[in-house]
Predict the 3D structure of the following.
Amino acid sequence: MVSSWRARRYDQGDDSKINDLLQATFPGYEGIERWDWICKHGPMGFHGPEGDIWVAETESGDLVGYYAKVRYPVRYFGRSVLASQGLNMATHPQFRGQGIATQLLTSANVDAEKNGIVLNFGFPNDMSSPIVSKFSHFDLGSLDELHLILDPGAYVNAIGRNRIRRFLRRVNLALKASRISRSDITTAVPPDSREGFTGEVDSIWNSIRDRFDLGLERKRQYLTWRYDPRWGDYEVRCARNGDETLGYVVTGMTTKRGRILMRIYELIAKDDDARTYTSMLDATIRRSSGLGSAYISISASMSEGCLASLRDMGFRRFGKRGRYMLHSYQSDHDLQLQQARVYHSFGDRDYL
């Protein structure tokens, strides 16, 4: 269908029309309440009318295109800068191929620079990557996952039998490593079941943030918003020594091809301490096994201490989920970005 349309910024009467468009576009869309929480209650407020949300509207007033971002402070080569993350992009199936997505991205990027945004970033899927790449200075590559296999048979069913030969050797190696490493763990600082983030989480992030050139600032304001129950069924556990919080882990259960799996969305220990990571991972593995999980997955972009602990516990690289693309409005770090030490987690990119 070829029809006239125009691109414009969000206005207050668009919510129900955006909801209709997302329902028609994304099979897994979870409804207007989730959208409202994500887009309107972010850690830096709602800026849709200022250009953080753009829509494509037909002459009859229907919305046939949509692009939204949310603002965060991001650690960028030793300083905290204002950044925006592209959350999702939608074009009504009957209006694809008319340049709607390109126009919305162009308009949003112009507004971002006017609004003082230093970085635009996102984790586009295979469908949107070709378009997003036109507006990105840097493609920082595919995002590796680490898996720990708990139930080999269920794991094979979850990842697909057509990939079994590729992974069979890795499954055996991971199981062997995990049996060896977990047999003599000393749980020095077991995580308790206390829910929510304490005021000490800022200091935990501050203790490791300078190990990275690029990473979303994981402060309490962001974490309490991102892992609010309205997002999903998250479990937050803190490792404590008396009244001191030494680290935290955020997990969530989901299913893949009918098999249960656990995702680790955040895993941070103060000063990148190996004993704290080992303690939190041991408790997480025991809980996941008790819930019947086939495997545990986590992003491979973690701190050195965390990665070392994950390897010791038997986690291995098993796959990729999307790409990390970034556009910088400042050219002072362009050369360094290609070799930047980047921190991101599953929580950074599992949105609508």
